[in-house]
Amino acid sequence: MAIWNLGSINADMVYAVPHLPRPGETLAATELSHFLGGKGANMSVAAARAGATVHHIGAVGPDGRWTVGRLADYGVDTEHVAQVTVPTGHAIIAVEETGENLIVLFPGANQEIAVEQLEQALAGAKAGDLLVMQNETNAQVEAAQMGRERGLKVCYAAAPFDAEAVSALLPHLDFLILNEVEAEQLQQATGLAPSELPVAQVIVTLGSKGVRYFDSDTGESQEFPAYKVKAVDTTGAGDTFTGYVLAGMDQGMSMPQAIDLAMRAAAIMVTRHGTADVIPLLDDVRQARLG
C-alpha cells in the first residue's frame, strides 16, 4: 500500500515574536529560522516518518530545488514533483511565546500543477492506496475524481478552510479531517453536522481538548483526550497528526490505534520549534513518555 499526496511545498520563514502583532503594529522578532514546510510537505514527511510509502505530487520554482532534496532525504518519493517557472510557495510565520502562531502564505508554484502531471503520477497507484489533498494546491477536484475512478481511498485535510472547496469535494471523499472551527463553518455552509456528512470517516480535531471521530457506516462517534504537554510552537502539529493518521490507516491499524499514534506525534511536535524538519520519528513517538 502507499499514500499519494497532492500537496503544497513551501519554504517556511519562522519569526519568534514576544506576541502576535496587532493591526498597524511594527514588531521586532527575536529569532528567524528557515524550514521546509507547506501542509502537503509536512503531511508527506509525517507519513514517511510513521513508516508509510509516500509519493508526493507537487511543484516548485527554480528556487525550490532544495525543498525537493529535503523531502527525498526524509524518505518521500519526489518523482512527481515538477519544476515550473513561478517561484516556490513560501510562508511567513510569527510564533509567540505561548506557541500560538500567525501565518501569511504565498501559494506560488503550488497553484501550477498540471492535470497531465496528476494523470501520470496516479497511473502508478493501486486500488486501496490512499490519496490525500489539502486546500493549498490547484486540481483538487480533478485529483479526487481520478482517485475515485482508480479505487483509491480519497482523503481531504480541509485547510486552509474554504467551504466551497470542501463542498465540491464531498461527493468524492472517503475521509475528511478538519478542526473544530472549520467543522462549524462547514455546518453553516451545508447545514450538515460532521456526523451527517456523506463521508465514511470524519475526524474533528479539538486542539488541546483532543479529537472527535465519526464513523458514518456504523453511526458511532468517539472522543480521544489530548496528551498534556507544554506547547512552544503549534505550527505543523495538525499536519503531523494527519500524516500519522494516514500512515496508520495505510498500515491497517484500527482508527482508534491510528488516532492515538497521531496524537502522540502531534503532542511531541508542539514541544519543538519548526515544521517539516522537526516532525518526530516513529521510534520517538512510540517511546515518548507523555502525560
From TrEMBL:
Keyword match Iron: no
Listed GO MF terms: ATP binding; metal ion binding; ribokinase activity
Keyword line: ATP-binding, Carbohydrate metabolism, Cytoplasm, Kinase, Magnesium, Metal-binding, Nucleotide-binding, Potassium, Transferase
Protein name as annotated: Ribokinase
Summary of subunit composition and partner proteins: Homodimer.
Annotated CDD domains: ribokinase
UniProt cross-references to Gene3D superfamilies, sorted A to Z: 3.40.1190.20
Catalyzed chemical reaction(s): D-ribose + ATP = D-ribose 5-phosphate + ADP + H(+)
One Pfam entry name: PfkB
Entry cofactors: Mg(2+)
EC number: 2.7.1.15
Modulation of this protein's activity: Activated by a monovalent cation that binds near, but not in, the active site. The most likely occupant of the site in vivo is potassium. Ion binding induces a conformational change that may alter substrate affinity.
Cofactor binding note: Requires a divalent cation, most likely magnesium in vivo, as an electrophilic catalyst to aid phosphoryl group transfer. It is the chelate of the metal and the nucleotide that is the actual substrate.
SUPFAM superfamilies registered for this protein in UniProt: Ribokinase-like
Active site: 239
Functional pathway: Carbohydrate metabolism; D-ribose degradation; D-ribose 5-phosphate from beta-D-ribopyranose: step 2/2
Entry binding sites for ATP: 179, 205-210, 238-239
One record GO biological process: D-ribose catabolic process
Localisation per UniProt entry: Cytoplasm
Organism, as annotated: Ruegeria marisrubri
Family statement: Belongs to the carbohydrate kinase PfkB family. Ribokinase subfamily.
Binding residues annotated for substrate, in chain numbering: 10-12, 38-42, 136, 239
UniProt key word Cell cycle: no
GN (gene name): rbsK
Gene Ontology terms: cellular component: cytoplasm
Domain Carbohydrate kinase PfkB: 6-279
Database matches in InterPro entries: PfkB_dom, Ribo/fructo_kinase, Ribokinase, Ribokinase-like
